[in-house]
Fold:
Amino acid sequence: LVYWDGMVGHSGKNGCHLYCEVMGRRKTRGTHYYPALLKPRDRCVAGSDHGDIDVSNLPPSGSDGYADNLRRLVASPN
Structure:
């Protein structure tokens, strides 16, 4: 169901939805992702080591990607 509706829950790497470009960050040896826009300066966990995200310039949501995938699904023979 996660891939069907795009929701991953508040603790997922893509916390808002599957097509969002804002990735969450997790603590060392942790599995819970947090919606932190700034990269921690004292640690760098693989998968959470992307740069800071400017809150005044957030990337657009991925509704275009969703629409493309939906068209592909509707056009599939089965």
User: Anything to note?
Assistant: Strands lie at 25-26, 33-34. Helices lie at 2-5, 63-75. DSSP finds two helices and two strands in the chain. Residues 63-75 form the longest helix (13 residues).
